[in-house]
Amino acid sequence: MMGKKKRSSTSSVDEGLTSVNVRKSKKRKSTGRSSKSEVPDQVPDSVFVNMLRDSGVTLRLGNMSNEIAVDQVVFQKRLQQQLRKNPRYPNIIQDFISGLETHIEDPERFKNCLLPCVPRSAGEGDASSSSFQESLMRLLLGVEMIQTLVINTLFEKVPEFMFEGLGEDGLNIPRIIMNQLKWLDHVVDCKDLASKLMQLVSVAPVEIQRDIITSLPEILEDSQHGDMARELNALLQENTRLTVPILDALSSLNLSSALLAEVRRTVMATVSAVQLEDLPIVVKFILHSVSASDANEVVCDLRKKLELEQCMLSLVLQASQKSEKNKKTSGSCSSKDSVALVLEVIKSAVRFQKTISEAWLKAIENVSDPEDHKVVDVLVLLILHSTNANQSRRGAERVMKTKVRAGLIQEVLLNKTFKGYAQVMRGHFPSILALAQGLLRSPDFCVVSFGGHMYKHSFTAFDSYCQQEVVGSLVTHVCSGVSGEVDVALELLCELVSQKPSEMTQYAVFVKGILDYMDNLNPQQIRRLFYLLSSLAFGLDQHGSHIQDDMHIVIRKQLSSTVPKYKRIGIIGAVMMVGSMGSQRSKADSQGATLPKEIHRQVTALLELVRSCSDTSAESAALYYDELSNLLQTCKLDPLVQEWIGKSALEDFQEDFVVDLGPEIKGSFPFQASVMYNLDEDESQGGIAINLMPLMAQDVPHRADKCITTSQRNARHVSPLCLSPFFRLLRLCEEAQHQGDLEEIDALLGCPLILTDMEVVEKVESLSKAEREFLCSLLFYTINWFREVVNAFCKQKDPEMKMKVITRLQNITYLQTLLETCLAASPGYTPPLANFDYESTEVLSPPLSAAPARKGKKESTGKKRKALASKNSSGDSTQLEEAAEAEESQQDHPEKEKDAKVGVSLSLYWPFFRELDLEVLNVLLCGLLSRSVLDTELHCKMREEVQLGSAELVFLLDDMWRKLDFSLTAAPGRKAPFLKGKSEKAVGFSHLQQKSSKDVATFVIQLLPVLCIHLENCHNYFQTLLNEKQGVVDALGLDVKEHQNMSSVYKLLLQVLHTTFSWSAFSQLEQRALLKSALGVLASRLKEEETDQTLEQLIKHSFEYLLNFRSTLPSLSTALCLTQLLTILSRYEGSNHSFYREHTASLSRHFLCQEWVTVSGAKERGNKHNEILQTLLSIYLEHTDDVLKAVEEIAGEGIPELMNAAKDASSRSWPTLSRQTFLVYYKVMMAELEKSVRKLPPGRQADSREVQSEKLLTWNLAVRDFHVLINLVKVFDSRPVLTVCLKYGRLFLESFLKLGMPLLDYSFKKHKEDVQSLLKTFQLSTRQLHHMCGHSKIRQDTSLTNHVPALKKSLEQFVYRVKAMLTLNHCQDAFWLGNLKNRNLKGEEILSQRSKESEEEDEESSQLPNGQNEDEESDGEVTENGHRDEEEEEDSEESD
After folding, report:
1. Residue 12, exposed/middle/buried by CB under 10 A (0-12, 13-18, 19+)?
2. Averaged pLDDT for residues 1119-1129
3. Mean pLDDT, the chain, integer
4. How far apart are CA 432 and CA 1254, in angstroms?
5. Which run of H or of E encompasses 504?
6. Element (H or E) spanning 949, and its range?
7. Residue 572, φ and ψ in degrees, nearest 5
8. Cis peptide before 90 (omega within 30 of 0)
9. In sequence order, which residues have a C-beta less than 8 Å from that of residue 867 and are 6 or more positions away?
């Protein structure tokens, strides 16, 4: 009957339309239609017709519907009886079917039979029939004896109408035939029906195929659902174009879980090949057919196959094809809608199925490669966040942060998502905003950066409402007062203003609201804020001109304030306004290249206003000069404005600070005036000098008299405080006007200063307090002048200028040594300010804390060391360490105190020195410089040579390290929001803050070759020293000062490299090229021949290069710097971890086994030394292959050697292990031992015998090490050692209970002897811990007793846990419990804690009876009378 199967194409069917058409046709039939020609009403008689009539149905001709006179059930019953009772039964059935076939040969009659019958009118018969009647065919199908034959007849009729489609009357005959078969009360031969339907599918056109497939669930009985699902599954693999109807049918079939899984796998395989418009249906079927057990696997597989990027690509292709036919819009919209529908399906599944939301999170979480992440990951995270179904919002935030922090979800993916799916993303805007807010508050730089990108994309891609919300959210961040948030939010707002000025001007009112919260902003943030507002108000398009008046009002109000803080804000704001108003116009602007006269007038008037308001205070004037300097450095001003500033600066500077040299200096000064530090002595008389000391002498009475008259104010007082800021402004004006040439002012580089002879420093003790403070201030002003001079001329190419710059650096280092001496003699002295953009209280606090430093030598040294340690921030550590070490060495050798005068560490006075520009570090590139000095006849009289000495290197490298530490490690989270007094860390970095971290990193990488040269020079210096002195560090004839300087240079160079390579941005893909260039410099020092190397090769060669320095390190702190640098480098390596771990462990062990002595020959010691040793030992134990073996080696060899050595001696095999450092070793070993056992896998019942043996062996080693360490308390019984023992003893015991005891549960029967041995060893340790608890109670030391309750609890748990283990293995009889006597550390019984019951018992009752061989625990940590004082445990840790 059926022809051969053929592959048919399909297109979408609108079922709703079909059903409507059918209903319309039914209605039309039921009401009857008037025929065009007169035809007989009734069909001629036949067996078929008569039987129907007798049963209650009258057949009509033409357009008239068949009539039914009885109820449908009555009709079917009558017809069945007539057929059965007919004498010709069963042949009559065939005649009946033949009559049916004959009747329906006419298409009109056939349609009548398919359409509903109508009840006979009340006049013609009964009115008992219901209002709606089935069709004749449907009625006949309800008669079981003829059902199969009727079905065959219907199927034979289908091909006649298969290709006709909709008729003139809107009827689709094949669809109506299928409708006849739906919802039958009973199908006689369901299997045959299913077979016929599938045969029909194989030959039918697409529309009919869709109708048949979608009708299957309503036609077939449940028994056939499984077989039909398999056939549909096979059909789906053959023809993916029938995907939608097949999935529609499958979702309605009643399938077993196994069959459903099989179908789902087939459907999953088609995801990547399915048509775009069908994709939502496919995804919906997959997600709705998921069970809890296989949700993770299914979602993970779906995520891999769901290529939304390809969907968008096909969308673009479709759009381009449609554009050729002028149908671009409709195709594009349908494709976008399909993607939106897919995401809607996912959203629906996530909302209503908890397992699906968890599975999506886990699938995204498990991706470990950035390239494997897709757009769908970002979109699903947004869906999970927005729906918050089953608390998925928190999970989405966590996964997003983790992925961004690890560099797995990157900005490229975010760009792609916003670019291709902006319409979809818009629906999740609240979630995008919430995620961006959370990311911006993160302490991680890369996470904050990603949050910033989310804000920028949201502003760019979305509508004005979203833009307003973005700006409002960023303003909220700025007003939060959290420093990191404020910085990033202001930066983002500035970027948006520069990229989208016209859009941002609409929201200028929001930004202006920040002005009310300026009290919480630091100077750099105030600069950014006023730059932002000025750009909006005075931008070239003038869209934001409505806030100009508000800006002027705020500025004038702040400038006129008498409060220094607000005046400072006014000066900064006014200068930033000048930058926006007076910026140079490009020739393309409509206004032309020059500044309009009116704006030029406003700019000069504003500058005059600021100047007049700041003249009343030297600090304000200095700040004005500094801010104007910053403006000139960062902004290109209009030439007219530039010329106005430069002209006034040059004239005023010459008038205020420069004097002509005469034969004598007139005036009365505290010290005898003299001309000092002249580098141009060969020039003729009549040169110039900086008039410093006379200005200081005039400034002292002026500062003392606070009341300044009008005449004095008009006379314009000149303060030496303005010398350096004013010169900086002058220099930058000259650079801007002469393209970097400073020929006009080059005389200031070598010109002398009017000071006093520095021999006065030697008798500083005999001076009065006022004289000492005057001398200190004079030195501060001089050093700051030289620092500014170096800033100015460091970029000049002339060799003679370079020589003078290096000479000025030598002057600075020499003056700093004099200043240290003077400061030591001037306690409580406050230096003059050098950085004016911060509160004076913030700048003053560090030195004041170190002021009382000269009381009683023995007492002051200890207190001072503590003060130094407490003030030791990340920026001050190097010099503070040296100061502390110097004091310690002087303590040890009092006879040397006369030769070496005690100084003050200048690191505490860091904020009182002028900031060096980053470009000054280029001086490191200078080698040996020389010049010929000519006599009057132009002959070479002598040759001068100059080069950087070790003191200058220390000066430059220390400044370099501070800059890197501030710029590269200053993540937003580092600036804690709640800690006051932290802002002084930014003092002295105002110029550096103008540069990005990337700029700083790039600059340093350019200097890496010369840093490597200096590093190699240090290595060679100490190598030569060791060779000449035969390895004796403190040999005679050693230049101690040079040795100390070279040690500092060595350490600073390693710290600079460590800080550089620790930059968090190196882990990002964008900075990978910069990292490779940095590593390339180090690698090239080792192997120059290779050019193109992979990152892994570069890391390995750099690692090997740095390893070469291990033999010449002068101190343990330098050794730690090298070790930490190598550890940082190894983190960038992805594959060969074992190589680096092995070398790092070997190197740290080498340093631990080396004896470290100072230049004086004494061993390194002190708290700082102990901290360094602790870090180094931790690195060794973290990187060694076997921690347990390493601990056993130190505890088994090194400590016994120490116990047998003399009092001040060290261990022979571990020279860094002495009685002073024992606590360090003990604490680190206990901590690392506990950490290593915490990582051991717990025992499982499924483990094999070999695995159990291996785990038991590991635990045996750990317990043995623990026993050795616990027993050391008998020898080293100081309070800090006991504290460590109690704390880590409890943690080890808890880990054993959690991870070790399950192993013993399952291993006891197979490894009885090993388990018994382990527990006996552990029993000895727990007993010693019990004794320590007793000792702590006797001593009544709260730092010890705080640990006792929790430890006692764990000891009791251990006893009962062992009993449970024995019970589990049916050996409970082996367990015996007795009372353990309370003893002290020496094993003596504590009588005060004896109970009555314990007095009656034998002292040995807690020991194991000789006859017991089973594994039993008789420690008696639990006493029956329960005399135990329970106190809460505090994990406080005591250090000595």
Report:
1. exposed
2. 92
3. 78
4. 51
5. helix 501-505
6. none
7. -60, -45
8. yes
9. 849, 850
Q: Which residue has the tokens 């700051």?
A: 784
**Nearest CA to 526 among 564, 487, 498, 496?**
487
Give the residue with greater pLDDT, 62 vs 799: 799
Q: 685-699 pLDDT, tens per residue?
A: 568 889 888 888 887
**Cβ–Cβ under 8 Å, residues 38 and 45:** no
User: Phi/psi at 941 (nearest 5 deg)?
Assistant: -75, -45
User: Around Cβ 586, how many Cβ atoms within 10 Å?
Assistant: 10
* Residues 892, 900 contacting (CB under 8 angstroms): no
Sign of the CA dihedral 338, 343, 349, 351? negative
N-terminal to C-terminal alpha carbon distance within the chain: 100
pLDDT above 80 for 857: no
Q: How far apart are CA 831 and CA 853, in angstroms?
A: 16
Nearest CA to 1115 out of 1166, 1189, 1058 is that of: 1166
Is beta strand 118-119 parallel, antiparallel or unpaired with respect to 67-68?
parallel
Residue 684 DSSP one-character state? P
pLDDT, residue 1416, reads 36
Pairing mode of beta strands 673-676, 688-690: unpaired
pTM score:
0.74
18 CB-side CA count, 13 A: 18
What are the C-alpha distances in Å from 84 to residues 46, 78, 95, 141, 469? 18, 10, 13, 16, 81
Residue ranges with strand state E in 84-233: 118-119
pLDDT in tens, 1153-1197: 988 888 877 888 888 989 999 999 999 999 898 888 999 998 888
DSSP class of residue 116 equals B
Cβ atoms of residues 1206 and 1200 within 8 Å: no
Q: Is the pLDDT of residue 3 over 60?
A: no
**From residue 164, how far is each of 5, 103, 160, 204, 613 by CA, in Å?**
20, 21, 8, 12, 95
Select the more confidently predicted residue: 125 or 432. 432
The answer to whether 1169 and 1215 are in contact (CB under 8 A) is: no
Query: d(Cα 833, Cα 853) in Å, to the nearest integer?
Result: 22
Ramachandran assignment for 389, one of left (phi > 0), alpha (psi -120 to 50 degrees), beta (any other):
beta
Helix-helix angle 692-704:769-793, to 10 degrees: 130
CA distances (Å), origin 623, targets 522, 579, 717, 733, 838: 14, 16, 16, 16, 10
State the number of CA atoms in the 13 A half-sphere of 360 facing the CB: 30
b vs e for 320-346, b when ≥16 Cβ sit within 10 Å of the residue's Cβ?
eebeeeeeeeebbeebbebbebbbbbb
Predicted pLDDT at 1344: 82
Asked which of 4-18, 602-616, 1376-1390 is least confident by mean pLDDT, the reply is 4-18
1389: phi then psi, degrees, rounded to nearest 5: -70, 140
- The single-letter DSSP state of residue 41 is S
The pLDDT of residue 30: 40
Contact 1305, 1312 (CB under 8 A): no
Nearest to 3 by CA among 202, 173, 151, 161: 202
- pLDDT of 777 > 90? The answer is yes
Q: Is residue 309 within 8 Å of residue 375, measured between CB atoms? A: yes
Q: By the 8 A CB rule, do 379 and 340 touch?
A: no
Give the Cβ contact number of residue 3 at 10 Å: 10
Confidence band (pLDDT; 50, 70, 90) for 866? very low
Residue given tokens 């730089």 in the structure block: 445
